Amino acid sequence: MRARRAAAVAGTIPPLPHGEQDARRWFLKVVATQRELWVAEDGTALVAILVFDGPAIDQLYVEPGLEGRGIGAVLLAHAKRLHPAGLGLWAFQSNAGALRFYERHGFRAVESTDGSGNMERSPDVRLAWP
Length: 130
Prior knowledge:
- The chain has helices at residues 2-9, 20-34, 71-82, 96-104; strands at 36-42, 45-53, 56-62, 87-92, 108-113, 124-129.
- By secondary structure, the chain is of the alpha+beta class.
- Strand 2 and strand 3 (56-62) form a beta hairpin.
- The longest helix is centred in the N-terminal third of the chain and has 15 residues, at 20-34.
- The chain starts with a helix and ends with a strand.
- 17% of the residues are buried.
């Protein structure tokens, strides 16, 4: 939640369309029980999260202040090992850093939208690997 909030405050991605309490309930009810979830830890601290919805990356967040240290790259490499036939994901067009990250790791844009299909109503892009 901290990484999502920090990205919204920075203007990299739009804010949540609903409150953080609703997002936490959704995470506990849906993500933790119905999705494939991986985490990266440093000792006892959670430093990143990777969530799959089938062969799609639903979420990949790194703790604010720890970006650029290769943590996301390790989780993404793990994702590729788990899904060697291919992966897809959606990212906001405004999230230039994430788009560069995924492109460096072999993802390519395959579709762009005006955002009318997502909750945030913000333009996004679908990326695919390989």
